[in-house]
Amino acid sequence: QVQLVESGGGSVQAGGSLRLSCAASGRSVSSYDLGWFRQAPGEEREFVAALNWSGGAKYYADSVRDRFTISRDNAKNTVYLQMNSLKPEDTAVYYCTAGMAFQWDNWGQGTQVTVSS
Questions:
Q1: What does the pLDDT look like over 32-67, one tens digit per residue?
Q2: With b meaning 16 or more CB within 10 Å and e meaning fewer, what string describes 32-49?
């Protein structure tokens, strides 16, 4: 079982940047696909970004493409989400996830991101 803990959330003005981190423990995630989802109040959880176990394939939701960057550091067992040019509609709780073949079996508790206009 993999435990995931997100950090780096907070409040920022529109146009600002945040970097989310997600540290994994329990076992190495070097062979796992890793991803980020988010959930705004009253909305369903939605996909944000993902990358495969090697980091060679990255996927983004259209709403964040060219603004967000997902990356991983297997030596630190950590996945990151660099978020630039933030918009009020990016306000949500952000969750990291890990799984094999993009089957998301492990979830963190989430970190709040609030973007004010």
A1: 999 999 999 999 999 999 999 988 899 999 999 999
A2: bbbbbbbeeeeeeeebbb
